[in-house]
Design a protein that fits this description.
164 residues; alpha+beta; Beta-lactamase Inhibitory Protein, Chain:B, domain 1; four-stranded antiparallel beta sheet; 4 strands
Length: 164
């Protein structure tokens, strides 16, 4: 009887066990092999430079267009250099210890304040103020660009602007 119970117990255990996994050969055929993992592309050593834009020039010219105007270029210029760059002022006012020159373009005005450089005994621009009717016209870059362009057109000037 013990033998009978033992064989019955073994038979019932066999019924409770899940199916055995298929042989390894069948598993290999059912699942595709995993794709090889590629390493990420190498990172550049430094950030690449922005693309260079090529300015359009009049055919036959090799000169580069003038760089954008920096309003702070006026600071430190003496009166002769300021005149060469912006042209003759529309008005000059004495307000000791300063001399104020007003330059006017079609859309805005710039007041440049000259003070005496005691070492060189030369009047130098130390400050400027921009005024215009529109907020966009009051932007110093735009106003100075208009002054420089109008001076070049009016006088046929080739005085180059060179940022510091």
């Amino acid at each position: 009887m013990a033998i009978l119970l033992g064989s019955f117990g073994l038979a019932s255990c066999a019924l409770l066990e899940p199916d055995a996994p298929p042989p390894a050969e069948e598993v290999a055929q059912q699942e595709p092999p995993p794709a090889p993992i590629e390493p990420p592309p190498p990172r550049p050593a430094k950030k690449p430079a922005p693309p260079v834009t090529v300015a359009r020039l009049t055919p036959g010219t090799t000169d580069q267009p003038p760089p954008p105007v920096d309003p702070d270029h006026i600071k430190g210029l003496d009166e002769a250099a300021a005149t060469a760059w912006l042209g003759e002022p529309a008005a000059k006012t004495e307000a000791p210890p300063a001399t104020i020159w007003r330059f006017a373009s079609r859309d805005c005005e710039v007041d440049v304040y000259f003070y005496l450089d005691l070492q060189n005994r030369v009047m130098r621009a130390l400050h400027y103020e921009v005024r215009g009717n529109d907020s966009a016209e009051r932007r110093p870059e735009r106003c100075f660009q208009q002054l420089v362009d109008e001076h070049r057109q009016r006088d046929g000037s080739t005085t180059a602007y060179s940022p510091r």
